[in-house]
Amino acid sequence: MTDTVVHGLPRWSLAVPPLALVVLVLSWGRDLGALLLILVCAGLGAAVIAAVHHAEVVAHRVGEPFGTLILALAVTVIEVALIVTLMASGGDKAASLARDTVFAAVMITCNGILGLALVAGSLRHKSQAFRVHASGSALAVMTALVTLSLVLPTFTTSTPGATFSSAQLAFAGVTSLVMYGVFVFVQTIRHRDYFLPVGTEEVPVQPADDDEESVVHAAAPSVRVALTSLGLLFVCLIAVVGLAKTVSPKLESAVESAGAPLAVVGVVIALLVLLPETVAAVRAALRDRLQTSLNLALGSALASIGLTIPAIAVASIWLDGPLVLGLGSKELVLFILTVVVSMLTLATGRATLLQGAVHLMIFGSFLFLTVSP
Questions:
Q1: Planar angle of CA 12, 18, 24, nearest 5 degrees
Q2: Given this model, what pLDDT does residue 236 score?
Q3: Residue 334: half-sphere exposure toward Cβ, Cα within 13 Å
Q4: Which residues cross the membrane (predicted)?
């Protein structure tokens, strides 16, 4: 065993969770100076990366497609925690934060992550195959969830503005949760084989010996390693929520000082949370496992909507101020463009460089128009 691995896990992944908690204790309730702010931001970023790393370890143990599901759920828990934390401290200024973050997550996953994976995979393998019935069904559920949760509030008439009434919000939350639950059932039980990478077969996962240095990527971690990662994952989530609460006032004031729209805060949250997952999707595409990349991208979009909207609906009971969910005209155009292009991309079962470039162009347009609406 090398000196960088302890009990099957890298030393950094063992050190980051407790160190992040130490940073949280040192910064909690204090006015952040420059040095402490840098420390908090570094701890927050490291805790997010460590959380997703430990989620990947657990995911590797349980195998596909459970692996990508666990990773998506871990990322969504972090995202929901950040949204609720910032909304609780932001007042009326944070009324649209949930909408901005969820929509940003959709655009990042369906255009940014998907585009990067397609470009990286195509540059190495020219073209890659994936399962149309799996990716197409995920896109259909995602489109329905976004329409019901983020598009309809713009056109409902029970309440003023792009908001839901209490009954409508409850209906949207329950519908989102049910649809996501059905998708997870189909993905993991009823049609699990649809979501496996092309050319692979379901094989039993064999645990690796704890002292085996050659485990690398092919062998699954032992039960002890997986349980250790599961515990450290929860520690990381606690650190992420606390550090986000600590840094949120500085983040909002920085956006206001720069003269940027408040929607930039939602984009920053989504980018922060989804960055490690982006790396995982690109790595899978480079290994010619594009279906895993699609599972990560579309699964994250589904989890973001299917779990965030119900959580926000419950949180709205004690959160003060309005909850703006409806998309504006600019966002509606970008969403429609994303759905149409994604349908064309996923219709053939093979991906090329051109398709990836188109998705990245849409993602770049989203980022530019967020900063310069």
A1: 120
A2: 84
A3: 26
A4: 12-29, 35-54, 66-89, 101-120, 132-155, 167-186, 225-247, 259-282, 294-318, 324-346
**Which secondary structure element, helix H or strand E, spans residue 5, and what is its range?**
strand 5-6
Q: What span, in angstroms and rounded, lies between the C-alpha atoms of 229 and 233? A: 6
To which H or E segment does residue 10 belong? strand 9-10
The answer for residues whose C-beta is within 8 angstroms of residue 116's C-beta and 6 or more apart is 278, 281, 282, 356, 360
**What is the mean predicted confidence (pLDDT) over 3-31?**
79
Query: Is the pTM value of this prediction over 0.85?
Result: no
| DSSP designation for 149 | I
Residue 92 has pLDDT above 60, yes or no: yes
Q: How far is CA 24 from CA 21, 41, 77, 82, 244, in A?
A: 5, 11, 19, 15, 10
More confident residue, 309 or 318: 309
Strand partners, 6: 9
CA dist list (Å): 36 to 18, 24, 33, 40, 309: 17, 10, 5, 6, 33
DSSP structural state of residue 351? E
Element counts in the chain: helices (H) and strands (E):
12, 4
Count of structural domains within the chain: 1
Check which CATH number belongs to the domain holding 337 and give it: 1.20.1420.30
326-372 confidence digits (pLDDT tens): 998 999 999 999 999 999 998 888 888 999 999 999 999 999 998 88
145: domain range? 5-371
